[in-house]
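Chapter review: from sequence to fold.
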Amino acid sequence: MKPRLATVIAAALAAPLLSAPAYAADARPTPPRTGFEQTNGARWTTQPEEQDFLATVDRASTRVTLTRIGTTEQDRPLQLVRIAERPTTRTVLLICSQHGDEPSGREACLTTVRDLAYTKDARTKEFLSRTTLLVVPTANPDGRAADTRGNSDGVDINRDHLSLRTAEARAMATILRDRRPDVVYDLHEYTATPLYYEKDLFDLWPRNLNTDAAVHTEARTLSRSYVRPAAGSAGFTTGTYGIWTDPVTGDPIRQVAGDGQERILRNMSGVKHSVGLLIESRVEPPTEGTPEPDNNRRRVNSQLAALKGLFSFAGERGRQVDTATAAARLTGYRDTGPIYLGGADNDPAEPTEVIENPACGYRLTAEQFAEVADELALHGVRTRPDGAGAYVPLRQSLRALVPLLLDERAPYHLTAGEADVNC
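The token string follows.
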């Protein structure tokens, strides 16, 4: 009996980093190793090492393309890696280290890029002929260099996916607009609270209520049927991000994070019709006195285990995901149904947070349009400029995003457009 595709792909990805990964004999140059691997977890890969590593992988593999998609305030490159055997209609996007002081996801992304670039496994190559993998290895290079959560201006990039004021968020918005990924997987780390909030890995799907129902279902399936079981099989504990649980019963007792606000990438991915998932590895060691290199390897290995679940999901449920995301991108053209300005899938919206009968669109003055035109274009929102400014119709793929950007009642709106109710 042939092995399941998911199993084969998982075997081709990075093995736990307790020792150097092994590769089959090949005429190509020896695969590079990250600074993290070279030191067995004693330190994180430096940015010059990352640049050399990615350049080597790019040169060595025809299935890899490395491009620069932006530049940070401190003149560091924002880069995108594309891995595929040929052009595909299905795309999975990894966003690594939006927060510069959360490096384990970045290390997992780098080794995954390398391992998929150099693999000779036929079934993994077949997978890559149907699914394009996009990776932003370091989404916040300035923050990573300084080991800070925010970028060089102190801005939390993961609160800028609506306003798009930072170069980093603008680069990611461009990817979402131009590549239209079916899955957006966002790698982070968190600080544990003993007894109540201390799993090896937490994850969470888009809670924003504007997420299409089928896309939301696929995101929960990715979490509960693939990522968590894969991590559990590797010996890691899992749970739902933002929820404290009773240490005896395991029942939820308090929510401390993980709401539905649209400016977070996890939620914006759902608003833009991608199957989104946030993944958070635990920073502190589960056992006091664990040597730092050992704990660092645990952090990275937990991310790698979860990534195996992601790739299993993409291989096994690819057609369902294709159907869900394609249908979601068309629903806005029907221009029906309410739009939510608040609430979450576990927190019903208040009546004041629901636009039951949305306007036909929003009119912007010339001054307003000049102020927000770039952001609307980066989001992929369709506009109709005219001599008096611009008109932004709701009848478009990103229907729910329009009021979040332009309605004065939306908590993070860019400008207050004039609602057109004369449909």
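Two observations follow directly from the output. Confidence is low (pLDDT under 50) at residues 14-26. The first strand starts at residue 64 and ends at 71.
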